[in-house]
Structure formats: C-alpha cells, structure tokens
Amino acid sequence: MCGIVGYIGHRDPLEIVISGLHRLEYRGYDSAGVAYLPDGAQQIEVIRAVGKIKDLERAVQQKAPVPGIHHVGIGHTRWATHGAPTELNAHPHRSNNGKFAIVHNGIIENYSEIKRRLTEKGYVFSSETDSEVVAHLLEELYEGDFRAAVVRMLEHLQGAYGLCIMCSDHPDMLIAARKGSPIVVGVGSGETIIASDVSAIVNYTNRVIYLKDGDIVTATTSEVDITECNSMPVSRETSEIEWDVEQIEKGGFDHFMLKEIHEQPEAIANAIRGRMILEDGMSVLSGMQMDAFDMARVDRMIIAACGTSYYAGMTGQYFFEEFAGLPTGVEQAAEFRYRNPVIQRDSCMLAISQSGETADTLAAVREAKRKGTRVLGICNVVGSTIARETGAGVYLHAGPEISVASTKAFTCQVAVLALLALGFARTRRMSMEEGRHIVEGLQQLPDLVRRVLETAETIREVAERYASYENFFFIGRGYMYPAALEGALKLKEVSYIHAEGYHAAELKHGPIALLGEQVPVVALAPDTPGKGKTQGNMQECLARKSPVIALATEGDEEIRTHCTDVLFIPKCPEFIATVPVVVVEQLLAYYIARARGCPIDQPRNLAKSVTVE
Q1: CA 394 → CA 235, 290, 388, 478, distances in Å?
Q2: Which of 122, 156, 179, 427 can pair with 296 through a Cys bridge, CB separation 3.0 to 4.6 Å?
Q3: DSSP string, 501-529
Q4: 3-247 and 455-600 share one CATH topology?
Q5: pLDDT of residue 469
Q6: CA nearest to 209, candidates 220, 224, 228
C-alpha cells in the first residue's frame, strides 16, 4: 500500500513528512514526493523523485529553501497502479492553479469519466494516474471555502480513497478523508500528523484517532474536527499506541525480516499469554464476545483471508475440524463476495488479516455481515478497520511487523487459531484431559521456536548451497500441506525464485514432469501422520535427480537415506509442528535471498498491506 504523511504544526514540515515517509518505506513503493508552501506564496510547491526516499531527500536539498516554509506539508510514497513509476506519476498532485496539492491511496474507479469532463473544460493533466483528478476537481469546485470544496469533491468520487489535502489559501489547515483506505490522525501538542499508518506518527505522539469510512478531518495546530460526509460532527475515540519507536528499529539485525523471525518466541508468548487455563484445558478469549452457549450453537466455521493469512487459515481448518468436529471452509477472501456463497444461519466467519486493512478481506467481512453472519476478526493492528467493523475477535499482540514478508504474524495467527478451536472444542466433544494436552502443546511453542533459531547457522549453510537455483517445490501432507504453501510463498517473495507448494500426493498428478537436477524439493516430513508416504514422494524426487531438502524431527537419522540435505525441528505434537517447520522455512528463504543479494525487506512489486482490490 502507498504511504501518506501530512503535517501541520510548529516544526519544519518537510523534516517531519520525510521522516514519516522513511517509517513507511517497509510498505513497498517506487517513487515519492512532498508538497510544501513557501511563506507568502500563492502556489504550493511540489518535489517528486523516482526511487527511494534518499533520492527524494537529494531533490529536496537541491530545490527547497530551508527558511521561509509555512508549517504545513504533505508527502507520499507511491506503489504504481495507474501509470508507470515516473516523476510525473508520483504524488503529490497539484491543481493547475497551484492552490491545491493532494496525496491519495486507493483507486478512483470513475476517474476516466471525471478526467474527460475536466479536460473538455480546459484542465491540463500531466500524469497517467487516477489520483490527479482529485486536485483538478477541487480547483473546479472551490469557491473560497476549503472544507466545503472537499465535501463537494468527495461526492463525485467512486471507489476507495485515503486523502490528505492542502490549500494555499488556507495555510493553517490540513484536510484528510477516508473511504476504504486507512487514515490515522496523531494528536500532538500544537501539531497534528496525518498518516496512513501509525508508524509514521509514533516518534512524535502516542495519541491517535483512527478515522472511519466516510470521515473527514479538518486539522489545525490547535484542534482536530471530524465530520461525516454529510457535514454532521462526529466524535471518535482517541487511542494510545502501545509500542514505541524502538520496536520499529532493526535492533542490530541486518534486516527487519531477520529481526522479526527472531522475535517470534516473545511474540507467540504474548499471543497466548493469559489466554489458557491448564487445569480446565480451556482457552479464554474475552474479545470474542461469545459465551459457551453461543459457541456451541455455531454449526459451521468460515475462514476468510488472503496470502500468508490464508495459509494460516488452512492450518486453522485442521484445528477446528480435528479438535471440535466443526465443519470449516477456508475462503479466498477476494472470491467470497463475488460467488454468492451459501451461508447457513448458525455459521461464524473468522476474518484473518495482519494489518486489519486488507481490502478483499474487509469486503468479505461486509458481505458476511449483510447475510447475518457473526464475524470475528483476527488482526495484529489495534484499531484497524477489520477490528473495528467486526467488533469482536482476537488481537495477535505480535508487535509491529515491518518487513513486507510476514513471519511472526503467521506463527501468532496459527497459535491464536489453535486457541479459538480449543474454545469451540470444549463446548463440544473435547474432554478436559484432551484440552490439557492442547494447552500443554501450545505452551511449548516459544521454546520450540527458540530451539529452531539456535540452528540458524546450519540453515544458512544449506541455504547458500541452493541459492543459485531458480525453481523450487515444497511438498507436505496434513498439517504440513499449508506449511508447504507458506514456505513456497516466503521463498518467492524475498528471493524472486519461482517456488510452488503442493500436497505431496499431487506430485504424480502433473508437477512431477518438472522434476530434474535444477529443481530442488523441500519435503516437510516431521514425525506426523503421512510421513511414510511423504518419504515415498521424496524417493520419487531423488529418482528424477531433484535434490531433496528434508525438514524432519530431531533424532530421525533414517530420513537421511531419503534426502540430499536435512534440517531438523524439535520433537513436538503434530498439531503444533507447523510453527517450528515454518520458522525453518522462513530462515531458509531469508538466507537464500541474502545470498542472492535481494532487497529482503522491500521486495519488488510488493506492498505490506493490500488496501485495494
């Protein structure tokens, strides 16, 4: 997702805006820009650059005067959608008369119609973007009242937007609006920071307001006024950010991805802490707002998610069906609202999203609610849209995740899904003794991950031997099948290697045709049911000269006869083996990417939070 930062206050606006853009670099982008107002000027100045924030900083140093800038500014990091990554397509966009500058996240679906009409009236467009229409539309509708022009302009837009707007006629005012794309307002002492993510704000204030869809915020140095699109004033709760700037620094690690892999023991401990009662074999998740009677009435579980969260949901499907005997379907969230899904009266949906802003998952939530379904959210970001719109669910408490490739969010999602399934299971057929077994297994997770991390050097050595290959297969059965899909995703995300995840039984149904000396196979074969059959698949791969990297359980020396290399996880119950296996895969992907010299934290073409369809 693109990044937005806006500032009004007593400090240098370009310094604050550029600092905020640095904090948003992890989201992925290909160009950046800032807009500012020189003192006494009638026109806003815009500076843009293709590439990284450092390229923008050089351009600012060359063009922007140090003194004489009014204390208001906006900035943006762009991930190309409409139009290639060029300086003209970069944000901010300015109106023809120079009075307005805007930054925009989202997609204006009717921009072609608006652009055609404005072009006929003589407005000149300099970019290929959908966003530029906003600046020119403001100029057309402006009659001296900045806020009134914004309200009228929004009435013309169809689609999704997070907007931050400045006007040279009103240098002491900054306006932002939200519909489908997150906007958060940081409230400081004599200053206001508007951003698309709290990470751009946390260095200056921990008091924030999360806008809801339809909100318009008018910010000055002294106050923040919020109205709905109909101009009716609304009150929004001020929240406190629970983490500080140190948590979004690398802390001595070479990359955020590696740091976040190593944070997983603590993150998982935070995700499960205080949520289990060993004596009763129970989980306690008050945020669900469901008692035992409510849980017992649920007759079908629907899990909606995308990407890594989707693979966590597939793992959750095993939990709900095996623990609770509860029929469970895992839905690709982008398809959910378009295929007229059959939803039974006592179904319950789990919407999983690290950011809580994933557009497709949010659309699935809204469709399920329209059909009268109870919806629970599993999110990491407090105050995110999915968390607010579901109104019930579970926070991961994994801490900020900066690297685009998700690591600790996935393992925490798996842990939380196990807790949820345990809660439903204990209202059904699971005994207290069986529940204790689940709790004891979950309590092992932080230590299991620590033990895997202790083998990082061995994983690095294996990774470097395979860094030159361009194609990989990952195979597994049962709980290891979604782990294979997630392992392949991690590798392709950060190393740019073509990687595919398959159920091991699928090899013979087509993919085996691709095996050969240049196609290594990562086989997930810990001590879980189906291991023997997976070993048979490994022999099939070796027979076709594919190198095989086995992920096996400590002490399984016999596995070496079925593979080329082996990496071990500690012995653990089947249902939690996914977590240590995936941590090995994360390290494997990381070290392969590092050996290939890839930009690990900001892979090309990827965004951390996908807030458009």
Answers
A1: 25, 12, 12, 26
A2: 427
A3: EEEGGGGGGTGGGG-STT--EEEE-SSST
A4: no
A5: 97
A6: 224
Question: Which tokens hold the place of 329?
Answer: 């379907």
Q: What residues in the chain have per-residue pLDDT under 70?
A: 1, 27-28, 64-68, 243-248, 607-613
Cα 177 from Cα 211, distance rounded (Å): 8
Residue 145 near residue 131, CB atoms below 8 Å:
no
As a whole number of angstroms, the distance between CA 573 and CA 529 comes to: 11
CATH of domain 3-247: 3.60.20.10
Domain topology for 455-600: Rossmann fold (3.40.50)
Strand segments, DSSP code E, in 420-485 are 471-476
Please state, in angstroms and rounded to a whole number, the distance separating the CA atoms of residues 586 and 88: 38
Residue 225 DSSP SS3:
strand
- φ/ψ (deg, to 5) at 11: -100, 175
What ranges do the domains of the chain cover?
Answer: 3-247, 250-452, 455-600
Under CATH, which number does the domain 250-452 receive?
3.40.50.10490
Instruction: Kindly report whether the peptide bond that precedes residue 599 is cis, defined as omega within 30 degrees of 0.
Output: no
Say how many Å lie between the first and final Cα of the chain, rounded.
11
Bridge partners of residue 305, in order along the sequence: 332
Q: Copy the structure tokens of residue 557.
A: 């020396």
Q: What is the pTM of this model?
A: 0.78
DSSP string of 207-230?
EEEEPPTTEEEEE-SS-EEEEETT
pLDDT of residue 338: 83
Please, how many CA atoms are within 13 Å of residue 234, restricted to the half-sphere of its CB? Answer: 19
353: phi then psi, degrees, rounded to nearest 5: -160, 125
Which tokens sit at 229? 């699109």
- C-alpha count within 13 angstroms, C-beta hemisphere, residue 484: 28
Q: Are the C-beta atoms of 204 and 184 separated by less than 8 Å?
A: no
Q: What pLDDT score was predicted for residue 610? A: 60
Question: What are the Cα distances from residue 374, in Å, to 246, 294, 332, 349, 601?
Answer: 37, 10, 18, 6, 36
- Please state, in angstroms and rounded to a whole number, the distance separating the CA atoms of residues 217 and 226: 4
Q: Which residues are catalytic?
A: 2, 608
- pLDDT at position 609 is 55
pLDDT tens by residue, 182-220? 899 999 888 999 998 888 898 888 899 999 889 999 998
* Whole-number Å distance between alpha carbons of 412 and 308: 12
Please tell me the distance from the alpha carbon of residue 359 to that of residue 364, in angstroms, as a whole number. Answer: 9
In the chain, the amino acid numbered 344 is Q
Which pLDDT value is given to residue 606? 72
